[in-house]
Amino acid sequence: MGTQDQQEQQSARVMSGSGLHVERRFATAGIHPYDEVAWERRNVEQTNWKTGETIFAQSGVEFPVAWSTNASTIVATKYFRGALDSPARESSLKQLIDRVVGRYVAAGIENNYFASPADAEVFGVELTWLLLHQMFSFNSPVWFNVGTESPQQVSACFILAVDDTMDSILNWYREEGTIFKGGSGAGVNLSRIRASTELLSSGGTASGPVSFMRGADASAGTIKSGGATRRAAKMVVLDVDHPDIREFVETKVREEQKIRVLRDAGFDMDLDGQDVTSVQYQNANNSVRLSDTFLRAVEQDGDFDLAARADGHTMETVRAKELFRQISEAAWACADPGIQYDDTINDWHTTPESGRINASNPCSEYMSLDNSSCNLASLNLLAFLRDDETFDVDAFVAAVELIITAMDISICFADFPTEPIAKNTRDFRQLGIGYANLGALLMATGHGYDSDGGRALAATITSLMTGTAYRRSAELAEIVGAYEGYAPNAAAHERIMRKHASANEEIQTVGSMDSIVRERAGLEWGGAIERGALHGWRNAQASVLAPTGTIGFMMDCDTTGIEPDFSLVKFKKLVGGGSMQIVNQAIPRSLKQLGYSGETIEAIVEHVAAQGHVVDAPGLREEHYEIFDTAMGKRPIAPMGHVRMMSAVQPFLSGAISKTVNLPADATVEDVEDVYFQGWKLGLKAVAVYRDNCKVGQPLSSGKTEPAATAVQPTEVRTAPVRRRLPKSRPSVTTSFEVAGAKGYLTVGSYPDDGPGEIFLRLGKQGSTLAGVMDAFSIAVSIGLQYGVPLSTYVEKFTNLRFEPAGLTDDRDIRMAQSIMDYIFRRLALDHLDYDTRSALGISTAAERTARLDAEEFAQEQFAAVKASDGAQGIPAVAEPAGAVHSSAQLLESLQGLVADAPLCLSCGVKMRPSGSCYVCESCGSTSGCS
């Protein structure tokens, strides 16, 4: 449908009598969705990559052939209910979907949503079809709980409230613990608590919010989340005008300094280290609420007042720019605090008469009233791309209608952790529909993530999603009534609907695809406003953009939430165990859409398989490079590219966006300030940053388990390093080399029994200046070696340096070099480091690489079989050591010598990758804190 008449006809058909009429759009009449697909039995086994320990095993689980091994593993390990090896244990995707969908259909009938039993039946069949074909997924609590004997908790996002009383503070601890125990997270604003400089009625001074954060942090670290090994997820917010704001801003900076001191003293301070529990405030994301008044004072270099909580009088006046600088310095140093823009958030608030929006959930996408919750569902955008690479608007609209209906029905039967949360959720019925795979959709359709076309398509799809959701919400209000809190907020709610619709008209479209989507979105917003003016809306909120970590894997998505692709090469599990690395399937799809021939596409894909990027790929035009830019790698998307994308879609969301803007390690405090300030200017509701390697507690994947640390005395005396000189006569080896036609000689002098202690580097036809630089460099490295700097440290730092001359070498073990330095230190590693150390650094001899390829022959055969079942025809595998790489993060490191600053999964030991504001494990689906 693309005209207003068609849209009106559709709206008329879905309403019938006093209930909802549901038309069959996806499933085939007379055929159950399960009978339309091929099924197979699989054995699911999950091991910890670090220890080899089996952490899960279930045989004979049933899944569609089209579902990847990764997706079936995630579902079997995370969502199947019942004790392992018991008859009650679920063993088929059919059982899981039937359990959940059956409860939704029954609740819809019980609460008079449907015009007839036949409509209820079609609703269930259509919902089943969408889930079966991985076109959307509910959030994890739905799969955990719905249809089981457990409490029917369906919400993943919670916001609590704390007042300035001891009873309220202690109740906050209790409520948070209850939510953590159930596997979810919560956020809270502590700004009502008096500052540490304010007086108590007893005559003493208050403790201040930061002191109470310690107790809450300890509680979260003890309870963990859902009884699992991962940390609980929580958000702590403080308003910028609170007198304790500077102490709040500095909390994590001081703790990060403590971590560094303890690490240097020999304590185990990794994320899962045995000594890290002594560090405080590590279980929460911290955010500062910035007001427009404060940010205008920053802009004008003016003063800003910090106000007492008890009576509002000014306790201190500060220079706004200095405080903003302090916030940015802290975020630069340790990634906290993030920013929430208070006036922007509350300007888009549909229910202001019922209270302000003070806080968010842990990932900052759900923002609503205190003591409330939100259940989420996410669409797989790539699933709505037709074979001709156009977006299926009608199918997308139909899916949103079904999903929003189901999400609203769930509130009718849902259980909640506290009575205030239950009351507010039932009174305001906040929903959070969103999407995943935006990055893959943009790449497949030939749009750069940081491009006008990419932003326009993302904005129009987001507008269409939320406009359709609110139109359906208005239709549901006509059938079962508007939300309880609607009446006093009617004018405000309608004002926000008109703001959304107005923003849709302001989108600057670039191509035919986004123009078609925007036109349809305008019709949906018109219908939403027209029906809402008559009947109100069923839901105070409709949409957010969540991280979609675990459910993204369930849907076989390449990218999560609003994120771009992490890398162009992927980690893929094999049915028989083990893993392979493949090129992102969106690349050949995109190249075909761009008009490249089959042979050129094959050559480009092979280049990506070998290099991990498209730079200098044979036949690829430079103007198309931006389409294949990724979050990390050779051509990373600039930080402001992420901010601009967030700005494009923010006007079309009820809530906000879970996303961290990643900055390179060499980013400055000014760069952080720019992101935070531009976030306000561009209309974001929240933004967070992460500068690579700014945290100590992010363990790197070395591929081998380190021995346990021995007890270290805190009073250990640290002595200065001692230089160990080489003897007068020492063995040495000179190696001649050639890199891209440039010739040189490397001489290495060694200790008689203990490796290299000096190097000499001479280049052919070098002038006196270059000769002097090479001599100075050689002396610096030689002295470092003699003072005990490990050769592996030099290898890690100097390999993959890129500058001319670069290219082919005359060394059979190192066929390509990024520079002379890259060659020199790879040669040193091959000559003087042991196999395990070199393997961890990704450096091998030609013989070793050949041996590994031979060992992978069986895995390659497995992969050929998997390609047919997973739809990966024509996608070459990257030749990597079997068992050496277990995630896209590790793969990117192995290809390009980069370090993905991400934690290891505490369940299976695999290096995780970013997903929204947290991290997700590609092996087992665990997240670093977000539900």
UniProtKB/TrEMBL annotation:
Enzyme class: oxidoreductase
Cofactor requirements of the protein: adenosylcob(III)alamin
GO annotation, biological process: DNA biosynthetic process
E.C. designation(s): 1.17.4.1
Domain spans labelled TSCPD: 729-830
Ribonucleotide reductase large subunit C-terminal domain segment(s): 155-690
InterPro entries in the record: RdRp_reductase_class-2, RNR_2_N, RNR_lg_C, RNR_NrdJ/NrdZ, TSCPD_dom
GO-annotated molecular function: cobalamin binding; cobalt ion binding; nucleotide binding; ribonucleoside-diphosphate reductase activity, thioredoxin disulfide as acceptor
Superkingdom of the organism of origin: Bacteria
Reaction(s) this enzyme catalyzes, per UniProt: a 2'-deoxyribonucleoside 5'-diphosphate + [thioredoxin]-disulfide + H2O = a ribonucleoside 5'-diphosphate + [thioredoxin]-dithiol
Pfam families per record: Ribonuc_red_2_N, Ribonuc_red_lgC, TSCPD
Domain Ribonucleotide reductase class II vitamin B12-dependent N-terminal: from-to ranges: 44-134
UniProt entry keywords in alphabetical sequence: Cobalamin, Cobalt, Disulfide bond, DNA synthesis, Nucleotide-binding, Oxidoreductase
Family to which the UniProt record says this protein belongs: Belongs to the ribonucleoside diphosphate reductase class-2 family.
Described purpose of this protein according to its UniProt entry: Catalyzes the reduction of ribonucleotides to deoxyribonucleotides. May function to provide a pool of deoxyribonucleotide precursors for DNA repair during oxygen limitation and/or for immediate growth after restoration of oxygen.
Protein name as annotated: Vitamin B12-dependent ribonucleotide reductase
